[in-house]
Write a structure and sequence with these properties.
The complex is a heterodimer of chains A (about 260) and B (about 260). With about 260 residues, chain A is of the alpha/beta class. Chain A has a single domain, classed as Rossmann fold. Chain A is built from eleven helices and ten strands. Chain A has a six-stranded mixed β-sheet with strand order 6-7-8-3-9-10, with helices on both faces. In chain A, strands 2-1-4-5 form a four-stranded antiparallel β-sheet, with no helix packed on it. In chain A, α4 packs antiparallel against α5. The radius of gyration of chain B is 20 Å and the shape is globular. With about 260 residues, chain B is α/β, with parallel strands linked by helices. In chain B, α4 packs across α5. Classes of the chains: A alpha/beta (about 260), B alpha/beta (about 260).
Chain lengths: ~260, ~260
């Protein structure tokens, strides 16, 4: 187990009570919670925009021991709509970042696929700017990228593309990701799922296991994705034995 | 207000659809921003409450159709909520006799306390900001409210709260509600009448459940189908079992229990 980020018993004002989280290298964590559950505050703490005597450890060192410049090379946080591009096109923008050649080439290819590499940023749609914003964070950070409020950025249909993309980044460049969201639709695409309620992690673990706690999740103000909800309820009625996410296989299990 | 577009010229196509009075209408598909823009564009090729419109009447009618944008920031920038609402009234040329009362009444309709008026608009929660947008749209006493992605980033509790307010606005204040979104599950659950746009034309216009029942047709045109509908469709197709199409998971479970 290669833990690169540890949050230990985080307490902050009345928002957090003993919040503990660990992130392993090359893993994706989703933190899901209702509005005002503390997700953005946690991102701001990780970004060192909120400072206090926190016990947060990044790669074996307290985060305050890093200079801000060094810290930003290790961890980047992306917030909704807080983008500040300096150049005219995405290609020019990425040229401003010093990083691995292969990583830059990978991002260039992704931007080409999105057909925005040479497009003027001011003419880019909001979704295109968001893609650029995320890719810039990945370029700048050698270790962790935190993306706050994922639902803000993408329609449900684009979320699969997003998770496929960050999975490639974990594989090729060993990046780790923390993603916060109010929707659980894509939670099974992450490695670990944390459910936050009123500043407290009430559940965490392998996403499919966590998502089966439908009563707790509903009480936290979140909806369980349809197939898991259906499977759990059918299992409770003893109509099936195991949770099944694939519709056709679930139908087979019911009528065979 | 019922608004009917009749063969409206749009990108080499002719668009015809109806936004129904006293119903919650849903609009889904591609180029939705343009579609919303077309609804308010001009007086031609349309009927309001079954009557053609004269050019001289259009400005007044157009002001009765209000679009609630996806984000508050896209609408206006000011300090306190009170300032924002005053600015909104200036921009929309709304001059009520009792300005403060008008503002407080609109907040009351959406369930917000007038104590929020002194607060900075950006200190409000996401759901409060959405309710403020709805309250502002009510200031001009609209007949039709078009809401772009009204539930984005909102949790279950806040979605229910917003939907409850919208139903109240529709039922008690007789407004036509239009939800513009690509959240198919939400549209299935919350709307009565659905229009799906694809490739610059109306692909389907029907009662929402009937529109989504046409699974093969929707899939052929690469339109997302709500999972609860897709499940019934697959049961019928693969097992020849007559599971009905449902909006609520509890109903489909009852149906499965009967047929298993």
């Amino acid at each position: 187990m290669d833990v690169i980020l540890n949050i230990n018993n985080l307490n902050y004002q009345t928002i957090f009570q003993n919040l503990t989280l660990s992130l392993e290298k090359k893993k994706i964590i989703t933190i899901a919670g209702s509005n005002n559950s503390g997700k953005t505050t946690l991102c701001r703490i990780l970004d060192r925009k909120i400072q206090d005597s926190f016990n947060i450890n990044l790669m074996g060192k307290d985060i305050d021991e890093y200079s801000l410049e060094k810290y930003n090379h290790l961890l980047q946080v992306v917030y909704p709509k807080e983008y500040h591009f300096q150049e005219t096109t995405p290609r020019e923008e990425i040229e401003t970042v010093e990083t691995l050649k292969e990583k830059k080439e990978f991002i260039i290819n992704e931007l080409k696929a999105l057909k925005i590499l040479e497009k003027e940023i001011i003419k880019c749609s909001m979704t295109e700017r968001i893609w650029l914003q995320i890719m810039m964070a990945i370029l700048k950070s050698s270790e962790i990228v935190v993306i706050d409020n994922l639902d803000y950025y993408f329609d449900p249909i684009d979320l699969q593309t997003f998770y496929d993309f960050i999975k490639k980044c974990t594989k090729f460049f060993h990046n780790s990701f923390i993603v916060t969201a109010t929707s659980l639709e894509m939670a099974t695409s992450s490695d670990v799922l944390y459910i936050i309620q009123k500043g407290e992690f009430i559940l965490h673990g392998e996403p499919l296991t966590v998502l089966q706690r439908d009563n707790v999740i509903n009480k936290a103000g979140l909806s369980v994705p349809f197939m898991i909800d259906l499977s759990v309820k059918l299992r409770d009625y003893e109509l099936i034995k195991d949770i099944e996410l694939d519709q056709e296989r679930l139908i087979e299990a019911l009528w065979n | 207000m019922e608004l009917e577009l009749i063969e409206y010229p749009y990108k080499d196509q002719k668009l015809s659809f109806t936004l129904k009075e006293k119903e919650i209408n849903g609009i889904s598909g591609s180029h939705l921003e343009e579609i919303v823009e077309i609804i308010k564009r001009d007086f031609r090729h349309r009927k309001i409450n079954h009557k053609h419109i004269k050019e001289e009447d259009w400005k007044e009618i157009k002001n009765k159709i209000i679009v609630v944008k996806e984000w508050l920031e896209d609408t206006i920038h000011e300090d306190s909520l009170y300032d924002v609402m005053i600015e909104y009234m200036k921009v929309h040329e709304i001059y009520p006799r009792n300005l403060k009362k008008k503002i407080k009444d609109s907040l009351r309709i959406v369930g917000l306390p007038d104590t929020l008026l002194d607060r900075n608009i950006y200190s409000l929660s996401t759901s409060e900001q959405k309710l403020v947008q709805m309250a502002m749209s009510l200031l001009s006493n609209p007949e039709m409210m078009i809401l772009e992605e009204p539930f984005k980033v909102l949790d279950l509790k806040n979605r229910k709260k917003i939907m409850m307010v919208l139903r109240k606005i529709k039922d008690q204040y007789k407004k036509t509600i239009v939800l513009v979104s690509n959240e198919e599950e939400m549209l299935l659950k919350e709307t009565d009448h659905l229009i799906i746009f694809k490739n610059n034309r109306v692909l389907i216009e029907d009662k929402t459940l009937d529109a989504y029942r046409r699974v093969e047709f929707l899939k052929k045109h690469k339109v997302e189908v709500p999972k609860i509908i897709e499940f019934s469709y697959l049961v019928q197709k693969n097992k020849k079992v007559k599971i009905d199409y449902h909006k609520d998971i509890r109903d489909i479970i009852k149906d499965i229990y009967k047929h298993v």
